[in-house]
Amino acid sequence: MAGYLDPNAANQEKAVVDASRKLRIGIIGTGWIAEQHIISYKKQPDVEIVAGADLIPGKAEAFFKKFGVEGVKTNYASHKEMLEDKSLKLDAVSICTYNRQHANCAIDSLKAGIHVLLEKPMCVTIDEAVAIMRAEKESGKVISIGFQPRLDANMKKIKEIVESGELGRIYYIQTGGGRRRGIPTPFGTTFIEDKTAGLGALADIGCYSLDMVLNAIGYPKPLTVTGYKSDFFGKDKNYVGYPKGKGAEYASLFGVDDFAAAFVRLEGDIILDFRISWAMNMDTPGDTIILGTKGGLRIPSTDCWNGTVGGPMKIYHEVAGSQVCTEIPIIPEDKSSTLFDKKIRSFLDACKGIGPVPVPTSQIIYNQAILSGIADSSRIGKEIEINIPEI
Length: 391
Fold this sequence. Notes:
With 391 residues, the protein is an alpha/beta fold. Helix content is 29%, strand content 21%. The chain has 11 helices and 14 strands. The longest helix has 20 residues. The model has no long low-confidence stretch (mean pLDDT 95).
């Protein structure tokens, strides 16, 4: 049996890929994030990209031409039409659509008997997440969610520190992140319109911050949430980040959050203090901190989410009665393989049955429940219980 990329291993030699059977891949949605997928797929010796679909006529064809991938079928009016084309013999798809299409595309793909790599966020609502998981259970196919930052060695180190017991029992976490001015409009308005995005900074980068800490502590179930979100900057026609001459138009279309915060109670009597921002009058909403009964971990923030930590981490603890601070050096970036490459490789290995699902829905449904819960709590202005139906 060929080796595989273990998404949970901190140190691992490069696996030998068995290219004797190629996996036939389709891409649904050919916008910016799909570019990262195709770049990584092209590096894999056991992949053949055979189809693509996009709602905009001609966009998929131009996309594959741009990346020099020939022989790809793209003459589909919808993703469902592509999935129904049995001549493709699809093994798996990457879903790279805007947020509000994630659930439909994932469910349709699973029902068609096809493995799914679904870009983050998983979806928009908890009901959609439950429907995806039910389709996954019925199909028996692999579905992994696109949280490639957890494959970074420094992210894995956070989990290792927690699991080592060095911090003791975890009781409080502060996390989040954001940008001073960073509403993502260079890619048009799909990130900021409610009809396409559904959620803004909360889902776009907030899901990453949640995954960083929830994955480290074993993804406990969220119980209650008090949430807040705002759109002061996005609704301002004079926002400096809008393209010249587009301020009034973009401000009128802005229908999501550019800032969100929450107080979440987790199973195990753990409190999560969360905040995230696309735009704010501050350089950072603060470092991530994980407090335990034996030690506390400080994880420096970054200017903009980049998949890793902002500098050396520090553990505050006691040694022989003395209060000390231990610095954890940054682990250098792996130049031989990007995080996206690792995401694609670990997904392909899972499809072949030689590795675990790298980012399973059984974890990310809790991430989605918090995002959805923050939005719901903000709308009604009070704390809510988080209820996840039986799958």
